[in-house]
From TrEMBL, chain A:
It comes from the Bacteria. Keywords: DNA-binding. This is Helix-turn-helix domain-containing protein. PROSITE patterns: HTH_CROC1. It comes from Qipengyuania citrea. Residues 5-59 form the HTH cro/C1-type domain.
Length: 64, 192
């Protein structure tokens, strides 16, 4: 599943660690999600959406 | 982006774990070559296990989560118990004629701490709040389990056909631990 985490982080000038701290997860988790190696659970996807003030669909994109 | 993570070996836990395994290899080599006898080997092994004590701190440098720090602490104490239990059990077995009941009891000395290792893994999976770290550990544990099953089945048939010597069943835990370590190393190499 593709996502816009890297772009959204860059817009806010956040490092992976900054985002990880806001999400209360490890930096490795943010890196794995951002690079598409790990798809987050629904609760974590909602937390990510809340941190950016967006909906899940605006961050995570369907890959057909 | 913060991509400045130091290599695992240079982080504090990695350094102590690497030193510990190096010590174990040296002690094993000394024992296998007959340079040292059993009691000295166990004493050296117990001393080497103390190299893992820095991992038992509440939140060592380089630990990815609180649950991992707790897991490390439980593993270190289980390991210490195992070395002490094994040393005492082997010494008693070698020096005294023991009844079956006492043999059963001394067999529990190294066994119970290894149950501690299994319990520590269970607690880690229950306590880890970071779902990705938990997922990574579960995948590594499954790889380790696959290694134990594959080696165990293959060795069992080789043994049945009298090609290889008998191996004690307690080897499943060291083989599982080696598989876990290799799988986690592979995950780090892949950047997973």
């Amino acid at each position: 599943m593709k996502n816009r985490l890297k772009v959204l982080r860059a817009e806010r000038d956040w490092s992976q660690q900054d985002l990880a701290t806001r999400l209360e997860v490890s930096r490795q988790s943010v890196n794995a999600i951002e690079t598409g190696r790990y798809d987050p659970s629904l609760p974590l996807a909602f937390r990510i959406a809340d941190v950016f003030g967006l909906t899940i669909e605006e961050i995570f994109l369907r890959t057909e | 982006m913060s991509g400045t993570a130091r290599p695992w070996l240079l982080t504090s836990p990695g350094r102590w774990v690497a030193l510990y395994f190096l010590s174990v290899v040296i002690i094993a080599a000394l024992k296998l070559t007959g340079a040292i006898e059993s009691p000295v080997g166990f004493i050296l092994l117990a001393a080497a296990t103390c190299l893992l004590l820095p991992l038992a701190r509440r939140r060592p440098d380089g630990c990815t989560s609180r649950a991992m720090a707790d897991y490390n602490r439980r593993i270190v104490f289980s390991n210490l118990g195992y070395v002490l239990g094994l040393g005492i059990a082997v010494t008693l077995w070698n020096r005294y004629e023991l009844s079956d009941a006492l043999v059963f009891a001394i067999a529990l000395l190294p066994t119970l701490p290894t149950f501690g290792v299994i319990w520590a893994m269970g607690r880690y999976l229950a306590e880890e709040q970071d779902e990705y770290l938990r997922h990574r550990t579960i995948m590594a544990a499954l790889v380790a389990l696959g290694l134990v099953l594959a080696l165990g089945i293959f060795w069992g048939f080789l043994e049945m056909f009298e090609l290889v010597p008998h191996v004690w069943a307690w080897w499943v835990l060291p083989v599982w631990a080696i598989g876990l370590g290799l799988a986690q190393l592979w995950q780090k190499v892949r950047g997973a």
